[in-house]
Each structure stands twice: as C-alpha cells, then as structure tokens.
Amino acid sequence: MYDVILAATDGSDPANRGVEHALSLGSRYDAVVHVISVVDTGRYGEPALSSTELVLEELEDRAHEHLADVAQRAETMDGEIVTKTCHGEPHEELVAYADEIDADLTLLGKQGLSRTGHHIGGVANGFVDGSDRPVQLARTVEHGSGPVFYPAGRFPLSWRKRTAFIRSARTNVYGY
C-alpha cells in the first residue's frame, strides 16, 4: 500500500506521534520511511549576524537530536529509515522533499512547537495547501486511549480551513 512514507518532526508531541505512526506503517508495509526536520530560516533568516547564526546552530543541533532519537526508535523497524535536516521555510521544504522522494503518504503534527489553539498549525496548513499528496495530521487527544481517527472536517477548525479539509479527501487527522 505504501512504499515511501514521509514524516516531519520538530520535537513536539503531535510531530512525535506522526513519526511513531510513520514508523509503524513503514514496518507494516516494509516501506522506506523518510523523517525530516527543517530549520526554519523563514522565521530567523539566513545567518548574517553572529546572534542569528547562534540561534540557527542551536535549532540545527535540536533537529539532529530529534532525528537521532527517531533513528534509535526505528532500530526495531523492519523497513528502511532515512533522516534529513535542511534549512528553509518548513512547509515549502516538506512539499519539495515529498515530491523529490515521491512520497505515498506524509505524516505531520497538527500543530508544532508554536501552538495556534484549536486550528492546524502553519506548517501543516502550508503543506496541505501546497501539495496534492496524501497527508495525515497527528494531534494529541487528552481523553481516551488508543488511536482515534477523524474524517476530514470533523475537528475544530476555522470555517475556511474546515471547508478546505471537507473538499480534500486526501487528509486525515488522528490522535492518541
């Protein structure tokens, strides 16, 4: 069913749930799982000043730590795992990388480290708007246990975003 799966991480709980689901699917389908962490140069810019360079170095170190953790968790997985760190606008880099590897499925956290309330985060929204590839968004559900699957449009979103998800049968949000 899936040969190539892409997951993105920024170290947030929803992103980690997406990565866990990607690893599980990769093991189940013997798929290659690509896990990417993007250093957001759109927020901080390219290093020109020493303070910006220090911030970006710190973010890149965190990205490498997140990916090392993922690689360690994936040791028991049956499929292959590929990790990548890059710089740029996260949603643009994710769309480009998904196209480059011809991802059959992309898993993203519903919201990353810059929480936006009940709405999907900017990176997830940018990916959904900028790509025609299948995507699943992971979120943390505070109640219940086990996976919960939400069909498109069945979770709290602004009217515009809800309408976009209802029109898009390629998006699924799940939580644990």
UniProtKB/TrEMBL annotation:
Belongs to the universal stress protein A family. Residues 1-135 form the UspA domain. InterPro entries: Rossmann-like_a/b/a_fold, Universal_stress_UspA, UspA. Pfam families: Usp (PF00582). It comes from the Archaea. This is Universal stress protein.
